[in-house]
Amino acid sequence: MFLNSENPDKAFQKINLLHMASLIIQIVLIVIVHFMIENKESFQISDQQTIIYTQYIFLLIAMATIPLSEYSIKQKLKKILQMPDKTERFELYLTVLIMKLALIEFINIAAIVVYFLSGHKTFLYISVILALFFLMSRPGKDKIMNDLNM
Question: Domain ranges in the chain?
Fold first, then answer.
């Protein structure tokens, strides 16, 4: 995937570029939807009961996503560390990392869509928190090398 024809530094640059592009997309989407709602250009759900239930569901999902993604990567890391080939370990680690980031991004975009539909600021706050967690999950070279004992 990343190491077959390139050096590890280029692989780190690519994964960081992918992370930054995903983060920028999330932030731009949050800003656009927020301004649309402030200008009353959204399809707002008026049923308060639906909004309340959806809030609780998204709060639970968002609160579960963070620890589950961390737990998942730690479990996979135990298996990855048993692999003898460093290239294979690195590629599998990056695959797991991309899956973790994709999960966070998916939940965040879903929260933005519900914010767009409901206009309720709770979903905006959930989205901002998930975007911050996504930012803090940036795959640094030192962290990856440390995780893989390389």
Answer: 8-147
d(CA 12, CA 5): 14
| Dist CA 108 CA 90 (whole Å) | 27
Q: What angle do CA 90, 95, 97 make, to 5 degrees?
A: 95
Tens-digit pLDDT profile for residues 81-95 = 888 888 888 888 888
pLDDT tens by residue, 104-141 = 888 888 888 888 877 788 888 888 988 998 898 888 77
Does an H or E element contain 82, and which?
none
The three-state secondary structure class of 120 is coil
Tell me which residue has tokens 């030192």: 142
Rounded Cα–Cα distance for residues 144 and 150 (Å): 9
The pair of structure tokens assigned to 13 is: 């640059």
